[in-house]
Structure formats: structure tokens, C-alpha cells
Amino acid sequence: MLGLQNGPDDSVSASYLACVRLVADGIDAHALTQAIARGPLHRLGVVQSALYIPADNSHPGRGSSLVLAGHYNEPGIDSAPRSLALHVTHPACRAFQSQEVVDWPMMEIADEFPLMSGYGDQLRERGYELTSCRMLALPVDYQSVTHGVLTLQATNLPGSWRWADAELMRGTVSLVAVWLRMTQATNLLQASGILSPGRAGRNVRLSERQVAVLQALRDGKSNTFIAATLGFSISTVKQDIRALQVMLGARNRHEVVQRALRVGLLPVE
Q: 150 phi and psi, to 5 degrees?
């Protein structure tokens, strides 16, 4: 990633340190998952990475759903992760609730996790040998509390983990935990008025649906109206609003609009 002419372990160390610097610079969750996949974990062949956090991020370790904070797809991988209700059968939900790593072969992923049906076929179509492809869901813990889950679709996982590989994975999860704690602390300071939003939210990337929901919130529309107008379910609208709250560090829909206006995600009328 840095163009250094060193051995493989040196390159991994350099890319890990580059990720540390990016976290210190205040990158968003999308950039974080991309940096992880294309940097220190590149040799594991990560084709998709995603970071989930509880919908109520003021109470880590609890909640009824996981919000997709950010994700990275290798070009050509079309299946996109989404926010999840905790009761569904998904590796991220299982890892969050059990606080244990979920490691599942992609050959069997649809049998155990129906929501991931088609993921293995897509990898096979791109020429990957499914016997070496696995899905990892890693709890992001801090002081024995799970603050989120990092999921990875990897196409080149070792049959048996070396100490260096295991430590690299632990270090990566710890880095994500630091990013989450920094983000939560920043959001709390901003919510209390101690810290100005400044550049917070300026790097947020919204989907077309989230932009439409944000505009409807600005216009004071109800969830029922938004769902009917945009053609989505009410639960999808609620998930989008929770995702907007997380990305903008807002406590409610009114703050979502105010912060979106402040950082330029909505035009001032």
C-alpha cells in the first residue's frame, strides 16, 4: 500500500501503521473497512468487509438491531451488506450476541445463514475456489463489552492460523475498537455542545435511499409517509434513520436534520 520494497511481514506492518494514521485522521467507516481490506488483511483475499454497530450506540452490547456503519466491496462483488435485526440468522448477529468469532465456510454459508444465499455463487462466478473462501464475523470488544462486529469475506484464509496471522487479526479488531470509541466520544461531546461538529459528517457517504429519507425528514414527514412515498417498508425507513443518526452522531431525527444542514448534506433553504 505504501510502495515499500520490504518482505511480506514488513509490508503488512507498514499497511497496518498506515491504517492507524488514517484512524487518527478521523476517517469514516466506509474508508476504514476499505483500508482494512486493502491494507493489512490484503493477503487474506478480503473481497468484502463490513462494520456493524448497535442501533442504540449509547448502550453498546444491547439493542434490537445492528446498523451497517460502513462497508467495502471488491469491484465486481455486487451483493451489498445491510442493517440487520438481531433476531435474524446472520454471522454478524451471532457474533454480536455470543461475543465469539464466527468462522464459516462459504460453501455452506447459505445452509446455515439463508440471508447470505447467493454470496457463494457470486464468488464462484468470479473464479474463486470456494473451498478456500470463508466468512468471518469478529466481535469488536472493549472492556468486555461488544461495541460492534467486523465481518470479512476472505478468499485466501490459511488452513491453520500462524501466530502472526492471529495477532494481526486481533490487532485489526483492536484498531476498529479504538475507532469506535473515538467516534462515540466525539459524538457525545458534540451532542453536549462541548465540541463543535467541525468536519464531522463531511466525509459521510449516503446511498440514494438515505438521501431521499434525509430530505423527507427535513420536510417533517412521518415514517409511514416516507415508506409509502418511497416504496419501502417502515422497518427499512427506521433502519435508514438509525444509520443516519449513527453517521452524524445525532440522538433523534431533529438532530439528524440539523447536523446534515451544518455539514452540507442538505441545502439550506
A: -105, 120
Domain end (from 191, 221, 249) = 191
Mark which of 137, 159, 191 sits at the end of a domain: 191
For residue 103, how far is the Cα from the chain centroid?
A: 18
Tell whether 88 and 221 lie within a shared domain: no
Q: Give the Cβ contact number of residue 73 at 10 Å.
A: 18
Q: Give the tens place of pLDDT for each residue, 10-49.
A: 567 777 788 888 787 778 888 889 889 888 888 889 999 9
77 and 123 fall within a common domain: yes
Distance (Å, whole) CA 43 – CA 155: 9
Residues 119 and 229 in one domain: no
Nearest to 241 by CA among 261, 268, 260: 260
Q: Model-level pTM?
A: 0.71
CATH at residue 249: 1.10.10.10
Residue range 138-173, pLDDT digits in tens = 999 988 888 899 999 999 877 667 777 788 888 899
Which three-class secondary structure state does DSSP give residue 84? Answer: strand
For residue 179, the enclosing domain spans 8-191
The span from the CA of 87 to the CA of 46, in Å, is 27
C-alpha closest to that of 106 among 46, 155, 149? 155
Helices (H) and strands (E) in the chain, counts: 10, 6
CATH number for 43: 3.30.450.40
Question: Is-contact 45 37, C-beta < 8 A?
Answer: no
